Amino acid sequence: MKIESFLLSEKGWVPNNSRLPVVFYRGALVCDANGLADQFEALFEGHGGSPDWRDSVFDYHHYLSIAYEALVSLQARRRLSLAGQVGATFL
Prior knowledge:
single chain; alpha+beta; two-stranded antiparallel ribbon; two-stranded antiparallel sheet; 1 helix; 4 strands
């Protein structure tokens, strides 16, 4: 597993939080594709999380003002843009 973290400062209308990092856990879970979502949800629940739904990432920029968000990519390569249009894009 490879762990990466970085901070995002305010970018235009997206407030971000310059004290709390964005953390990537690349390769955190390894199993067949069919069981990976179930494995993540069990891990998340074990840490007090509530995996309420499975869906896709919004295709427009937005932010959460009073919550945190955990995103899991179950496919090998996806592009994710964080911190609005002038933020960072990751694969």
